[in-house]
Design goal:
This protein has helices at 11-32, 36-61, 67-88, 107-132, 142-157, 181-188, 195-222, 228-238, 245-248, 254-274, 280-300, 303-329, 333-356, 358-364, 375-383, 398-413, 418-435, 453-483, 487-501, 503-515, 531-543, 560-565, 581-589, 597-606, and strands at 549-552, 568-569, 610-614, 644-650, 653-658. It is mainly α. The protein is globular.
Length: 662
């Protein structure tokens, strides 16, 4: 087995991808007048929004998507932001005016924040890399196959539009809407030779940079008078396995993960935008930045709209009512009533539109089984155990749960944070509905997230971490006063306790989850590739001719030839391709090629030159992935002869030149 690409060799690429996601959005926000941690935390969501809009626009005017064109577009967006900031006079606001906390962090507090970020984010990144193995180790999950080949097509076609840009994934038979913002940025990230290492690196950036930065920014606006909650956030966040590990490994839903990671910074920007102590100019500037961040969350994955509604509606209702009351007290009651009724009507209209919109209805109609009781799901939430697949319990996060409960008690006393409790309870309720009995009528509410509890419970981490951070800060302050020690010492003890009581920030669980779809055999839900098979695929660029078109059962591994070796394949994804009767014929009966002329007609129509065979079965030690939709391609066992010539082999898989239909 080849050594592959090590993490050290892609470290510059990881840093470049992080800067690519943070800097454009940060520049736009900073030039509008947003500062510090808020601009840093919301910046990636703004970048995502910019990338989504630019990719669609470039496709409409026929401009190729590339790193250069994205940077040019981002620079133009920053220039426009600078013009708006100058016109509003918000870029350089008067001293003492802040839009996040009541005061800026002191230099020592910034140093402590940097240290906890290194501890929390660094530990999480190290665990994820350990679980993944090498940088170019292929993930073996259903969605991962789609996204990796989609990345390859974005690189090749220069089209990253969400409005049909990924049509090659469907053999150009359809051009559907598909959220391609994650693909757009990862595809043009510098420093990566292959898309596999770029995708794997994006998991680190999403989880350790975008997610953590957004949570820090949110903590600054939720707890504006206190620095400790923000300082504790990176360590608290690293103690949960639910996100990002589950999202980027077992689920392999990178677009959804990007949307989720952008939520905290966007909500922080929402709070700052509606805060009543700012001038109208700053409200406008913040509102423009917020619009870009909202676009980023929704364009990254449409379910982000419902995620925002779930988490931010309680907050939005409170802030809006406060602003309307303030306007009424200032002598404009009729204006306040009018705006209130207009907003309420708009919310109702939007809800009606979404609930009758065909794409939304298709999501709501997605059928998924559940459990007979809510108790297993509740137990998993209490210890932060994955709600997908059967993982061994190697570590728990009871200390995080206890801090959340303490945060709830404190938030009931601190009125400004009560919305966090409502958001948390709503997310918990929907998670349990998705995980519980299928016959429950209210379970339909979880349909906005494909009725998948392992997606919804990622959202509850946002209010949970905020409540835990508030409680942790309160504990450190209380301990410092009680024992008459510096608050930094008390906070340091708390951080050490968090690391110890979570078994090294859940190291074993983080590694276990990541490895389950990368390096631990049998792969969770069924192995697609054996180690020797990966080497065979990587050699295919040299062993197969340039015009090769390979037919093979998708779940046996043939789609990996496209993004790892640049070899054309009949099936670039594991799902059946609609509107392609030739592919259906081969899926159902390729083994009948000697006697069925229709099969050979399909082979010639698709230009098949080679076949990917795999004899690994579901009953073997590696438990091969198995699907009912492709019986005609399952466990092919060619024999050398006039129609078959072996080209290469690896493990149970082999590549054959096929001339039986010529």
């Amino acid at each position: 087995m080849s050594e592959g690409v090590g993490w050290a060799s892609v470290t510059p690429g990881i840093a470049g991808l992080a800067l690519l996601w943070v800097l454009p959005g940060y520049a736009v926000l900073r030039l509008l007048g947003v500062r510090g941690l808020l601009a840093l935390g919301a910046g990636p969501a703004v970048t995502t929004g910019l990338a989504g809009v630019l990719a669609i626009g470039y496709d409409l005017v026929g401009l190729r998507w590339s790193l250069l064109t994205f940077v040019v577009g981002a620079v133009l967006a920053a220039a426009v932001a600078a013009g708006i900031g100058a016109a509003l006079r918000t870029t350089w606001a008067p001293a003492g005016v802040t839009v996040a906390g009541e005061r800026r962090l002191r230099h020592t507090e910034r140093a402590w924040l940097a240290l906890t970020w290194v501890v929390g984010g660094g530990t999480l990144a190290a665990a994820m890399m350990t679980g993944m193995g090498r940088a170019d180790q292929p993930p073996q999950a259903w969605d991962a196959v789609f996204h990796l080949n989609a990345l390859w097509f974005v690189r090749e076609t220069g089209n990253a539009s969400s409005l049909g840009g990924l049509s090659p994934m469907y053999a150009d038979t359809v051009a559907p809407f598909y959220p391609a913002v994650w693909h757009s940025l990862v595809a043009v990230a510098p420093g990566f030779d292959g898309v596999t290492e770029a995708a794997n690196a994006s998991s680190l950036v999403i989880g350790c940079v975008i997610w953590v930065a957004g949570l820090i920014a949110l903590a600054r606006v939720v707890w504006p008078a206190r620095a400790l909650p923000s300082i504790l956030v990176p360590v608290l966040a690293a103690g949960f396995v639910t996100f990002p590990a589950i999202a980027v490994s077992m689920l392999a839903v990178w677009p959804f993960a990007l949307s989720t990671a952008g939520l905290p910074g966007t909500i922080a920007l929402l709070i700052a935008t509606l805060r009543g102590v700012l001038s109208w100019r700053m409200h406008v500037a913040l509102g423009i930045g917020l619009a870009w961040a909202l676009l980023g969350v929704v364009l990254a994955h449409p379910s982000g709209l419902f995620s925002l509604a779930l988490l931010a509606l309680p907050l939005l209702a409170v802030l809006t009512v406060r602003q309307l009351r303030r306007q009424a007290r200032l002598g404009r009651p009729w204006w306040a009533w009018g705006v209130g009724l207009l907003l309420a009507g708009g919310a109702v209209g939007l809800a009606v539109f979404l609930l009758t919109f065909p794409p939304v209805l298709s999501i709501l109609d997605y059928e998924r089984g559940g459990q007979d009781s809510y108790l297993p799901g509740l137990g998993s939430l209490l210890i932060d155990h994955p709600l997908v697949y059967v993982y061994e319990v190697t570590s728990v996060n009871l200390v995080g749960t206890l801090l959340v409960w303490l945060g709830i008690a404190l938030a009931l006393r601190w009125r400004h944070a009560r919305w966090l409790i409502v958001s948390l309870l709503a997310a918990v309720a929907l998670t349990l509905l998705a995980a519980g009995p299928a016959e429950q009528p209210l379970r339909a509410l979880a349909g906005f997230w494909y009725t998948q509890p392992s997606r919804i419970n990622q959202l509850l981490l946002i209010p949970a971490i905020m409540l835990a951070a508030g409680a942790g800060g309160w504990l450190a302050d209380r301990a410092a006063r009680t024992f008459r020690v510096p608050v930094t010492a008390a906070a340091a003890v708390l951080v050490v306790a968090l690391v110890v009581l979570t078994s090294g920030l859940r190291w074993t669980s983080q590694v276990q989850v990541m490895a389950s779809t990368y390096t631990t055999y049998p792969i969770a839900w069924g192995s697609i590739l054996e180690p020797a098979e990966i080497d065979m695929i990587d050699r295919a660029g040299q062993t197969l001719p340039e015009d090769a078109v390979v037919l093979g059962e998708a779940v046996a591994g043939s789609p990996y030839l496209l993004h790892r070796a640049g070899v054309d394949v009949v099936f670039p994804q594991l799902s059946p391709i609609p509107g392609s009767p030739e592919r259906t014929v081969l899926e159902q009966g390729f083994e009948r090629w000697p006697s069925d002329p229709e099969v050979c007609e399909a082979v010639r129509a698709l230009g098949v030159t080679h076949v990917y065979a795999d004899s690994l079965t579901f009953d073997d030690d590696l438990n091969a992935k198995w699907e009912e939709t492709t019986p005609g391609l399952r466990n092919l066992d060619p024999v050398e002869g006039p129609a078959w010539t072996k080209v290469d082999e690896g493990g149970s898989a082999s590549l054959w030149e096929f001339t039986g239909c010529t």
